[in-house]
Amino acid sequence: MPSRLSKLRQIPLVAIPFLVAALLGGLVLADWYWAIPTTRQAAYVGRNSCMECHQDQHDAFVDSYHDKAMDLATEQTVLGDFEDAEFTHFDIHSRMFRKEGKYFVHTEGPDGEMQDFEVKYVFGVDPLQQYMVEIEPPTPGSPVGSIGRVQVLRISWDTRKKEWFYLPPPDVDEKLAPNDPLHWTGSAQNWNHMCADCHSTNLHKNFDLASNSYHTTFSEIDVSCEACHGPGSLHVEIAGGTSLFWDRNHGYGLKELKTESNVAQVQTCADCHSRRRVVCPTYERGDTYYDQFSNELIMPQTYYCDGQVREEDYVFGSFLQSKMYHKNIRCTDCHNPHSTKIKFEGNKLCTSCHQHPAGKYDTEAHHRHQAGSTGASCVECHMPETTYMEVDPRRDHSIRIPRPDLSVALQTPNACTQCHLDRAKLSPEKKASLKNYGAWMTAARNGDQEVKQALAEIDAWAQKTVVEWYGKDYSQDQSHFAYALSEAWHENPQSFPALVDLVKDPKQPGIVRASALTQLGAFNGEPELGRIVKLSLADSDPQLRSAAIMVTEFLSAAVLPRPEVLKLLMNGLDDPTRVVRTDAASALAGTSLEYLKLSGKEEAFNSALTELKESLLRNADQAGALLALGALAETMGDPAEAEKWYRAAIRVQPNVTGPRSNLAELLTRRLSPARQRFQQLAAQGQRAEARKLAEQVAIGDFEIAHLREEELYNLGRDASQLPNVAEVQYRYGLALYQANQLEASEKAIARAAELQANSVTFLTALVRLQQKREKWEAATATIQTLRLLRPNDPGLAEVEQEIRQQRQPDTSQR
After folding, report:
1. Which residue from 204, 384, 469, 591 has the highest number of Cβ atoms inside 10 Å of its Cβ?
2. Which of 158-172, 237-251, 269-283 has the least mean pLDDT?
3. Which CATH entry fits the domain spanning 622-711: 1.25.40, 1.20.120, 2.30.30, 3.40.1000?
């Protein structure tokens, strides 16, 4: 019998290479096929693991703004003067000093008493540095390294001028009481909720509602590698392995940021560089943005009607409007991702891409300014700065053509006027009091007629000059979305067609279309709106679908029958993005579970509802989230659960408006049957039982009255601090009306109507109040204003008739 060796010898020599190749191919195939299981989750490993292979990137990162986003307060990191430096603001005399190698601030504490507070952490390096105090330690038994309740001082260090300054809340220029949410010890300055998520890596807030305490953790104190690339353990394992291939299940083991489209990278940056609400409590950097967050749309509190920034939007909302974004430009085309610096200084940053025929843009023929001057700078015209935090100028990333014609028509800012404020015919003292263009715009918006007139004159000059230079008069072209949004913000009933055109226009940025769609909610009886929401719910942009859910929820039955509305909302439960699913769950919260079950959507609804509750519970340290949970419970018919959340909201943030009003209304409704029963028993002469109910009603009434009294105080505080915010004045006026303080109520609501002159809501409330106070002439004048806004409103004729009847003397009594 032949041996195996002899059999091998019988194989032709020519076949051996093929056998070897087959063997090697099999080994290579096996090498490729072996993979890390898809269920394996990546963990955070820290930048030192990255540095082993990526030294150049690490070196660029060191000392960057991301590297200095947050740090321990040490001799190397503290930039401010703590050598017994003194600072006085609003009669509070603070002192910054050192003791035993630590840094301290002697200032007003949460109880109003002057105390010493140890500075444990610092924020930033340029143009300011902020300082943080841990005013409550983490609860005993918290994980090692946990951080308790940390507050950010308003006393800050100007790193350029080398001096202390006070960082006030936007538009609030008065002393803050220690119990004010805006005080440095209040919720607005709480690091754990307001700041931490975007200043450290792998941040877990870890708020415990039962004890009202934090044990916040992070893997790295600053914005390190894994903040953007995601946890790196799988990448380290794959890169350090012996395989010829990257992993077939996990690829590189990191978030893919270098895709053909710019979306993945821009959205990864937007995790922090956006004004947004959290949708998912357990997200990873680089995941789809709309599974994690929902960005704020173009609304008057944050933007001007043309989309320019008013309050800080952290870039994303502006960049979404730009042509750059829609031409696939991404953040790293201009910024080095590791050093965070811009890639080139001066106009080369723009001309490195905009190379067009020689001299087309970077020439006087284009910018009409002397070469090398401020006016010749691309960014000064197309990305003007707005100063935030008193000393920090930040550029508008909507990257737009200056439009002084919009300023003339709609009082928006423009880059031309911003540079030429020296043309204003104001006294030197007045000019000196206005620190920057934003201050000029705020003064004009708040009713300073002298500043308003000065800006109007410069705007008109700028418009005339632009027409002379470029020959194009934009003032006759009202196609810009600013006109439609402005009309909608002023509640103009004629704005419907323009808003519809915006929503339907695929050339408009998604954020603009979604913003217009939300404004269409005011026209929930318009027949065409049904078709618009159907189109929007099928749009590829989650912003449109999310906005459409909110509008669909309140559609009139005349537009779409309720079953069809519910069908559209239920379809949203299966949306690929979490933000739309949770919005749909919220909109369907009042729908019977039996109906959802019969429609085959019970499971999808419960899943989306769980996601919604998770997103709210992540922010259980905020009264607003607890208030939303309470409202959700009420909508779903569980008043006991709602009461629990309302009371939790008051306990967590006792100085915030909202929860007390909702709780008072809930208790009033709950007490109503007892009140009616008491009246019946009293009428029937059943005194003993009536007396028991009377005590129950009295106790309930006492609590309700106390809640309303506290809410009125808080609303009054807000109205005092924000005298030029119409919505705040209106809410305060309604609370005063409920407290039967009619004169003060009329004054507050009249102020709201003055600030937002075309608001039908405010004017209607005002005329009803004037009617109640029998101020007939004022009421008639307000009705005439309303008639100009709503000439076909039959309700106005009814109000006029009521007033005429009330003014007639009652002859039957003579």
Report:
1. 384
2. 237-251
3. 1.25.40
Contacts (Cβ under 8 Å, ≥6 apart) of 21: none
C-alpha 780/C-alpha 786 separation (Å) is 10
Q: What is the model's pLDDT at position 441? A: 97
Q: What is the dihedral of CA 180, 185, 187, 191, to 10 degrees?
A: 160
Per DSSP (E only), the strands in 3-82 are: 71-72
CA separation, residue 402 to residues 398, 416, 441, 455, 549 (Å): 11, 7, 16, 15, 35
Closest listed residue to residue 78, CA positions, set 195, 166, 156 = 156
Q: How far apart are CA 362 and CA 230, in angstroms?
A: 40
pLDDT band for position 799 (50/70/90)? confident
List pLDDT tens digits, range 332-361: 999 999 999 999 999 999 999 987 776 788
Look-up of token digits 């067009």: 356
Report DSSP state, residue 710.
H
Percent over 70 (pLDDT), the chain: 96
108, containing H or E segment: strand 102-108
| Residue 814 confidence (pLDDT) | 44
Task: Assign domain 725-814 to its CATH superfamily.
Answer: Tetratricopeptide repeat domain (1.25.40.10)
State the span(s) of the chain assigned CATH 1.25.40.10.
725-814
Nearest to 706 by CA among 648, 654, 652: 654
Q: 């699913």: which residue's tokens?
A: 581
Label residue 295 exposed, middle or buried (CB < 10 Å: 0-12, 13-18, 19+): buried
